């Protein structure tokens, strides 16, 4: 929690300082009230006092109450400003940090947990600051000041108040110790509920198609019930607090008056009056002491949960991305569109075995290099290493003669047009998806990119054409349409190097062929690295790499590999007839 406070800005610290000043004023005004009460009781019991004198004291009391209220309102205003501004910044920081994460950090935290951390967890901290700032500062000041005011009045009353405070602290401690461990569990269970809900909603079509509503509902119920049970436990534990405090408050009033009765009885004539007035004032101060502890109990309700949340937010902010950018902004002079793998071995974090072993190849400007291999042979993993979604374990990858690890993130990514295996679209329009991240959209480029990617036909047919809405993840498009828009996005970017990770799989054979021949014409000044399952897609590539269980088992053209590589032959014969292969 304290670490998180380092993200507060100077302006917010100034607001906090103002809040503290107003809180001190508020406490001072609150504690003035019993003094006036003392005067009123003395006046009432002193023969010859005027009603006007009593009323004057009453007016002072009223002014104190109004002043205290005004101070409380100003404090709340500052606290709300600090809380809202702070959580705005925290959300921004968490989001920025998340954007810098590589796949490794994303997998470590998990997406649902990152969502909970940037929403629910930050709200907990905001709530603590908004409501807690007043209480955290006010309670100790009030307690100390009120105790100071009552000391020396009567040891019997002080002892009774001491016993009440000790009892209160004991109750608070027990409750916090019981509830605290549950707060961490609550946040983890919220992550879990988030995960189940998210998975269910994003896979809703599969859930319907497989009549798995009951199954999913059960999963949801388990997560929901677990969270509810834990929440109920902490709430019930906390619920004991307020009645206990109420009971202690009534008890201390009773004790003060009871002790007072004995003291008055034992006192002589005029002293009786002073003791009576002192008793009224003392009980009022004692109430303030208990009130201060009651406020502290609000902190005990808010703080543990907010502390857990703060720790979870801090975990994200303190996590440094494993993949750090370098300083190079350009490749070696005279080299363009060149990708070189030198003895690359790769192991996923925490995995025992290497997924890729000793891979070496070069793709030069204008070349099309294809990668084929059975499912799970490491094709996607290999191309994911080029834009540094992961870093190589051994060996090196050079782009334009410079190790990818030495480039700045922007420099490396501006060279690469990456089309992932799963077409990723964002809610927005056709235009915002194709010209992704580009604010000065060039219509001509957009049109051309859509035409090359074989997406122009269906986009033109849409009522709003380039402005046609795309829903989240492109759910209002077919699989093939989504792939075509993702391809158009890469073409619009005009990179030096295209990486297509099985990006033609949802296209029909004809579209696949037309798209590839257009690509060859239009992007002949760029390098293409194509991962594919279909021999037809890669047959014409300048070079084909055959992967088998993470090892490069063949390199060459289609014809060469048909002569030399068993694995390639096997794939080819399983997809095409001997005649098709013979006739090209
Ligand atoms: N994030 C990850 N963490 C750990 N292991 C992974 C991860 N992603 C993939 N793998 C493993 O790496 C291996 C290679 O996966 P990869 O996706 O590269 O294969 P592929 O050849 O592209 O397969 P496909 O043709 O089915 O897409 C698989 O065994 C897979 O289980």
TrEMBL record:
<dbReference type="GO" id="GO:0005524">
    <property type="term" value="F:ATP binding"/>
</dbReference>
<feature type="transmembrane region" description="Helical">
    <location>
        <begin position="279"/>
        <end position="303"/>
    </location>
</feature>
<keyword id="KW-0472">Membrane</keyword>
<dbReference type="InterPro" id="IPR027417">
    <property type="entry name" value="P-loop_NTPase"/>
</dbReference>
<keyword id="KW-1133">Transmembrane helix</keyword>
<dbReference type="GO" id="GO:0016887">
    <property type="term" value="F:ATP hydrolysis activity"/>
</dbReference>
<feature type="transmembrane region" description="Helical">
    <location>
        <begin position="12"/>
        <end position="29"/>
    </location>
</feature>
<keyword id="KW-0813">Transport</keyword>
<dbReference type="InterPro" id="IPR003439">
    <property type="entry name" value="ABC_transporter-like_ATP-bd"/>
</dbReference>
<dbReference type="InterPro" id="IPR003593">
    <property type="entry name" value="AAA+_ATPase"/>
</dbReference>
<dbReference type="InterPro" id="IPR039421">
    <property type="entry name" value="Type_1_exporter"/>
</dbReference>
<keyword id="KW-1003">Cell membrane</keyword>
<feature type="transmembrane region" description="Helical">
    <location>
        <begin position="127"/>
        <end position="148"/>
    </location>
</feature>
<keyword id="KW-0067">ATP-binding</keyword>
<feature type="transmembrane region" description="Helical">
    <location>
        <begin position="59"/>
        <end position="88"/>
    </location>
</feature>
<keyword id="KW-0812">Transmembrane</keyword>
<dbReference type="InterPro" id="IPR036640">
    <property type="entry name" value="ABC1_TM_sf"/>
</dbReference>
<feature type="domain" description="ABC transporter">
    <location>
        <begin position="339"/>
        <end position="574"/>
    </location>
</feature>
<dbReference type="GO" id="GO:0015421">
    <property type="term" value="F:ABC-type oligopeptide transporter activity"/>
</dbReference>
<dbReference type="InterPro" id="IPR011527">
    <property type="entry name" value="ABC1_TM_dom"/>
</dbReference>
<dbReference type="Pfam" id="PF00005">
    <property type="entry name" value="ABC_tran"/>
</dbReference>
<protein>
    <submittedName>
        <fullName>ABC transporter ATP-binding protein</fullName>
    </submittedName>
</protein>
<keyword id="KW-0547">Nucleotide-binding</keyword>
<dbReference type="Pfam" id="PF00664">
    <property type="entry name" value="ABC_membrane"/>
</dbReference>
<feature type="domain" description="ABC transmembrane type-1">
    <location>
        <begin position="17"/>
        <end position="305"/>
    </location>
</feature>
<feature type="transmembrane region" description="Helical">
    <location>
        <begin position="239"/>
        <end position="259"/>
    </location>
</feature>
<dbReference type="InterPro" id="IPR017871">
    <property type="entry name" value="ABC_transporter-like_CS"/>
</dbReference>
<feature type="transmembrane region" description="Helical">
    <location>
        <begin position="160"/>
        <end position="180"/>
    </location>
</feature>
<dbReference type="GO" id="GO:0005886">
    <property type="term" value="C:plasma membrane"/>
</dbReference>
């Amino acid at each position: 929690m304290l670490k998180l406070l380092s993200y507060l800005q100077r302006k917010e610290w100034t607001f906090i300082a103002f809040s503290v000043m107003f809180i001190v004023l508020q406490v001072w005004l609150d504690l003035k009230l019993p003094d006036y009460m003392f005067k009123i009781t003395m006046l009432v019991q002193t023969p010859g006092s005027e009603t006007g004198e009593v009323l004057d004291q009453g007016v002072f009391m009223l002014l104190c109450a109004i002043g205290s209220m005004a101070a409380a309102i100003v404090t709340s205003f500052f606290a709300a400003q600090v809380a809202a501004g702070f959580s705005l910044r925290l959300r921004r920081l968490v989001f920025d940090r998340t954007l810098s994460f590589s796949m490794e950090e994303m997998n470590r935290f998990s997406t649902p947990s990152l969502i909970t951390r940037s929403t629910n967890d930050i709200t907990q901290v905001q709530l603590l600051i908004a409501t807690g700032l007043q209480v955290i500062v006010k309670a100790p000041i009030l307690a100390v000041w009120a105790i100071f005011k009552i000391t020396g009045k009567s040891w019997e009353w002080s002892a009774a108040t001491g016993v009440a405070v000790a009892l209160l602290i004991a109750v608070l401690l027990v409750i916090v110790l019981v509830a605290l461990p549950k707060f961490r569990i609550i946040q983890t269970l919220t992550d879990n509920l988030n995960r189940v809900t998210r998975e269910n909603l994003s896979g809703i079509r599969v859930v319907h198609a497989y009549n798995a509503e009951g199954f999913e509902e059960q999963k949801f119920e388990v997560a929901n019930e677990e969270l509810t049970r834990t929440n109920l436990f902490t709430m019930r534990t906390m619920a004991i607090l307020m009645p206990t405090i109420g009971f202690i408050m009534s008890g201390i009033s009773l004790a003060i008056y009871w002790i007072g009765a004995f003291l008055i009885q034992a006192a002589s004539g005029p002293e009786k009056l002073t003791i009576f007035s002192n008793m009224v004032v003392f009980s009022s101060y004692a109430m303030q002491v208990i009130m201060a502890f009651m406020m502290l109990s609000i902190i005990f309700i808010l703080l543990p949960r907010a502390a857990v949340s703060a720790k979870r937010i801090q975990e994200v902010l303190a996590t440094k991305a494993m993949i750090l950018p370098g300083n190079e902004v350009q490749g070696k002079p005279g080299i363009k569109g060149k990708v070189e793998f030198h003895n690359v071995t790769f192991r996923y974090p925490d995995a025992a075995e290497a997924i890729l072993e000793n891979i070496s190849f070069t793709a030069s400007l204008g070349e099309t290099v294809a990668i084929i291999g059975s499912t799970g042979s490491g094709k996607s993993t290999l191309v994911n290493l080029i834009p540094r979604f992961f870093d190589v374990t051994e060996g090196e990858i050079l782009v334009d003669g410079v190790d990818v690890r030495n480039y700045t993130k922007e420099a490396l990514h501006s060279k690469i047009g990456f089309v992932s295996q799963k077409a990723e679209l964002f809610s927005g329009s056709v235009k915002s998806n194709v010209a992704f991240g580009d604010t000065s959209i060039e219509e001509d480029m957009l049109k051309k990119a859509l035409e090359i990617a074989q997406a122009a036909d269906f986009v033109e047919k849409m009522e709003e054409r380039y402005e046609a809405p795309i829903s989240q993840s492109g759910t209002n498009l077919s699989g093939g349409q989504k792939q075509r828009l993702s391809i158009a996005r890469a073409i619009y970017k005009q990179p030096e190097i295209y990486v297509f990770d099985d990006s033609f799989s949802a296209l029909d054979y004809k579209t696949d062929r037309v798209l590839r021949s257009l690509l060859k014409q239009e992007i002949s000044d760029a390098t293409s690295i194509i991962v594919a399952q279909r021999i037809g897609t890669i047959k014409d590539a300048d070079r084909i790499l055959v992967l088998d269980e993470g090892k490069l088992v063949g390199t060459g053209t289609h014809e060469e590999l048909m002569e030399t590589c068993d694995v390639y032959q096997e794939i080819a014969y399983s997809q095409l007839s001997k005649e098709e292969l013979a006739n090209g």
